[in-house]
Amino acid sequence: MVVHQPVKSWRNKLYTTQQTDTPSPMASAATGPAKKGTNVKKLILAALAATLAVAVVVTVFFIVLSPSRVEFSITQASSQPVNTTSVMIYLTLNVSNPSRRATVAYRSMFVDLSNSTGPQLVNFVRTTLPDGAMPLRQPTRNTTAIAATVILVAGGLVENFARNMTGTFSVVITAVARFWVGFASTRLYDIKVTCENLIFLAGPGAGGRNATIAAHQAIGLPITCA
User: Fold this and answer.
1) Domain boundaries, the chain
2) φ/ψ (deg, to 5) at 113
3) Cβ pair 154, 146 in contact under 8 A
């Protein structure tokens, strides 16, 4: 007896292959949200990384371009009679830039001699800086000495303002400067410091009617300005 095995038609094979290769609608629906969730996470991580990078750049930029600390002091101060009616006051300022990375570009600087015990209208006199002193480009870790002078005419200024050089004086320094780090610079900054308790002692020949034209020497130097 011959047994005939059933023959599978090519249609059944094709149907079986299609069922195996084609994902079910439920599987596709489950894969879609998973991919979307992964993309959203990547976008969030990228945004956080970009924000962190910007914050780092801004912080470094702020630290690098923040104004450096500059220091001022009075290292020498004296007065000498010019003639029988006038006296010249000599000041030497030390302008220090202790920074290791920033240079200082001074656009202007004014040095005023003040006597708060004098009348209001003669509370201060402006000194004269040497020609070419400003503008000043000060390199890193540098100290520059700047001379300042002012002449007082005997009678008015010497008696009313200087009180025959027996009062206590202050030196007020105002400046405008910007700071440079390489090719980058800060905005312009206003700088104002005061050097207090500048006291002069009369030299030989002082006293009596000649006190207005006697030589005087400052004591307690150097005076740090703040």
Assistant:
1) 11-65, 71-224
2) -95, 125
3) no
Neighbours of 151 (CB within 10 A): 13
Output the average pLDDT for the chain.
Answer: 77
Two tokens, residue 178? 């910007």
Task: Kindly state the DSSP code that residue 164 receives in the 8-state scheme.
Answer: G
Q: How many CB atoms within 10 Å of residue 179?
A: 23
- Residue 199, C-beta contacts closer than 8 angstroms, at least 6 positions apart: 168, 169, 218, 219, 220
What pLDDT, in 10s, does the model give residues 38-86?
777 778 888 787 777 665 544 444 445 556 789 999 999 999 888 877 8
3-state DSSP call for residue 50? helix
Residue 24 has pLDDT above 80, yes or no: no
Q: Which two tokens stand for residue 41?
A: 């996470």
Confirm if 171 and 195 have CB atoms less than 8 A apart. Answer: yes
For residues 211 and 5, what is the distance between their CA atoms, to the nearest angstrom? 141
Domain 71-224 falls in which CATH fold?
Immunoglobulin-like (2.60.40)
84 by DSSP, 3-state: which? Answer: coil
| pLDDT single digits (tens) 85-121 | 788 999 999 999 999 999 999 999 999 998 865 554 4
